[in-house]
Design a protein that fits this description.
591 residues, alpha/beta, 5-stranded parallel beta sheet, 25 helices, 14 strands, 44% helix, globular, binds oxaloacetate ion, binds magnesium ion
Amino acid sequence: MESTLKEMRVGASVLDMDPKSTVGGGVEDVYGEDRATEDLLVTPWTISVASGYTLLRDPQHNKGLAFTEKERDAHYLRGLLPPAIISQQLQEKKLLKTIRQYQLPLQKYTAMMELEERNERLFYKLLIDNVEELLPVVYTPTVGEACQKYGSIFKRPQGLYISLKEKGKVLDVLKNWPRKSIQVIVVTDGERILGLGDLGCQGMGIPVGKLALYTALGGIRPSACLPVTIDVGTNNEELLNDEFYIGLKQRRATGQVYYELLHEFMTAVKQNYGEKVLIQFEDFANHNAFELLAKYGTTHLVFNDDIQGTASVVLAGLLSALKLLGGNIADHTFLFLGAGEAGTGIAELIALEMSRQTKVPLEETRKMIWLMDSKGLIVSSRKDSLQHFKKPWAHEHEPVKGLLDAVQAVKPTVLIGTSGVGRTFTKEVIEAMVFYNEKPIILALSNPTSHSECTAEEAYSWTKGKAIFASGSPFAPVEYEGQVFYPGQSNNTYIFPGLGLGLVMSGAIRVHDDMLLAAAEALSGQVTEEHFSKGLIYPPLCNIRKISAHIAALVATKAYELGLATRLPRPANLVKLAESCMYSPTYRNYR
Ligand SMILES: O=C([O-])CC(=O)C(=O)O
Ligand SMILES: [Mg+2]
């Protein structure tokens, strides 16, 4: 494999000598024929098969000690491996043991990333078979700490870095990526990593982690996934002063410079990979997130995970909670602490669902939903000074400053934390919720764990076990007065892998709000009586691939109904199709 890449690169540099050529070429033009004129020499490059030492260092094909005797003979591996032959199951067992021995989450994270670099199938097998245990290692909350310390744990680059230095050359940068048939891109500019703020170029951990879940949870092939970090600088002083910082050492570019680089990226993606590549925006700051989504939502297959993925997962949890409590979504009153991407995204999808169910116009259903930001309750007297995405939530009310006052004023049945600030659901606030409601719904969604609005233990003990609680980052079950409570994880990881699979397998060309509603309904449909009896409003993550297949099927169904699907004719059984196109990490036998 390494030798193949080398040959490709040599091929490209020979071609670059052609001064007349303006188009064509790139990594796919292995033989140089596209760009060569009749008088320019070409080299008849061939693609070689990885074998021997190179095969052991190729993470896509390496199987380590699981290579059989026959494979060791056929692929020049004799002597390069110790004599033992062990199964993939035994390899898994050994690795799990090693990972469990590490005390620190970051050590576990590093061990997993090293495994991914060494043996991709084993990495995914381990992750899929132990998803509940390993998700918090490769994803939230540990991925947050990994991003904070990315500079020091950085060894080999992962993903594609597009910085201001690459302005004007973004298409060439995409062509440097060794894989050509990309189906999903997760892109960040690192400005708002989880609730941790601006981590600049170190945000790369997020697209890498999200895409690992696209594969493990949604079955998208690893080779079809592309993590991208756009580096326009950082306003994080600590990073700017850190001699080991891996990104551009300048303050963030804004305005035209920023939008030009993003536009070049979006255009190059479509040019290089076509109309059906999915681009997931992740962890952009509010001031860019809404604008990018609005701008590219009509021309590209894009969605913003923090706005739309989070909205869909929360709606799913609410639909499940209603099955537990009875009544309709329109019977509820919502209060959000935090009016950014997650807060307004969730609020809008709830209002849409209410409107669909009751046939009441959206402008009216929005009135059941109240949002607070750092300046207090969002009310009409503040309208002129509000950012545009907050304006629809400015209802008639006198000004209210604090959260406790807001709970007392609005008397919400559902309290949702999306501010990125931890420990803001105080004892008084939670007690007020249970004062007004027999079973209050409390969602502490900010990530990672240290930024959660309250802990699971606080939610259960302060409400004397009455709360229906879920959080963005995982919490262990809580025992309160002899009863065990199971907090659900209301994290967009339930949604984006299945949503992405549904879009990809139907060949969808745009994302539509109805697909987010469909994904929420599909997820909620996977919650059974048994889960309800434990107080769960989300199904356990151990079944996530089955859940993703159901989400994918309903999303694809919507894509066909809306005329947005291009894979025709429509396959009859979409759940079966979803299951059958999922990547399997089991080793292949080599001839
Ligand atoms: O990554 C997560 O766990 C959820 C998410 O999108 C965020 O917090 O930004
Ligand atoms: Mg995010």
